[in-house]
Design goal:
CATH architecture of the largest domain: Alpha Horseshoe
Shape: elongated
Distance between the termini: 78 Å
Number of helices: 11
Oligomer: single chain
Order of helices and strands: HHHHHHHHHHH
CATH superfamily of the largest domain: Tetratricopeptide repeat domain
Number of strands: 0
Radius of gyration: 25 Å
CATH class of the largest domain: Mainly Alpha
Length: 252
């Protein structure tokens, strides 16, 4: 019998939420058909346990990868064997990839007892794992900065503290730099910096970024003020020290 990791990266296939409820598990068959990655002779309890972990890792319900019945609140009528849902096909490939990483690539590193990758390793409770800055950059490109600000607030309200996204100041600072350097959007970058300061008013690096943007916009006086604020918060900040010297030299 083939061996597979208990949790596979991106294994959304068969993503079920049974929550241990007897009425739900009673509707799960004792034998399974059309298993192409998991062992054909896998036990019912083992499969249910794996499905729970898949579901938790991706934050999804059964219908994410299976054809549901008429009752959205029941597993009755689910066509678990159907290959129609696209997520099921994707998940099978992700399971194979996870199996190769855990079974071959990680041992090849020579690390003793390496941590096995699981769904949650990358997904962290969301079905489409992306970094926060990428999510917001895509929103900006499609709908503008204001929509991205709203998106950030919504994501923060829903996911802050869960580990699904990196809500540290560095995420928005990185996004602001991308907008300024790669997109030449100084106004958009400044809006992101101000959003960052709303949540982290004592973070020196954000003031350094604001000073850089103000200098790029030709407002040297404002830039000096921002950099001095950064130094007040972090007197040893080398970027702020260097920038203040440059600004003061250019003003003479």
């Amino acid at each position: 019998m083939r061996s597979f990791p208990t949790l596979a990266l991106g294994a959304a296939a068969l993503a079920l939420v049974f929550a241990g409820a007897a009425p739900a598990t009673a509707q799960i068959p004792d034998k399974f058909t059309n298993l192409k990655v998991l062992p054909e002779d896998i036990g019912r309890e083992k499969l249910i346990s794996i499905m729970k972990e898949f579901s938790s890792g991706l934050g999804v319900r059964c219908s994410f990868c299976h054809v549901p019945g008429d009752n959205p609140h029941s597993l009755e009528g689910f066509d678990f064997a159907s290959d129609k849902p696209e997520h099921k096909a994707i998940a099978r490939e992700m399971m194979k990839m996870a199996g190769q990483i855990n079974g071959t690539l990680l041992p090849a590193t020579g690390i003793e007892n390496p941590m096995q990758i699981r769904c949650v390793t990358c997904h962290r409770g969301v079905s489409d794992p992306e970094t926060l800055d990428n999510v917001l950059l895509e929103t900006i490109q499609e709908k503008g900065v204001e929509e991205a600000v709203t998106k950030y607030r919504d994501l923060r309200k829903t996911y802050y503290g869960s580990g699904s996204y990196d809500f540290s100041p560095a995420s928005l600072n990185g996004l602001a730099e991308t907008l300024a350097r790669e997109k030449q959007d100084l106004a958009g970058a400044m809006a992101i910096v101000e959003l960052n300061l709303e949540f982290y008013p004592e973070e020196a690096e954000i003031y350094v970024m604001r000073g850089q943007l103000q200098a790029a916009q030709g407002d040297t006086e404002a830039a000096v003020g921002s950099v001095k604020k950064a130094l007040a918060l972090d007197p040893e900040n080398r970027w702020a020290k260097r920038m203040l010297q440059q600004l003061e030299a250019s003003g003479n």
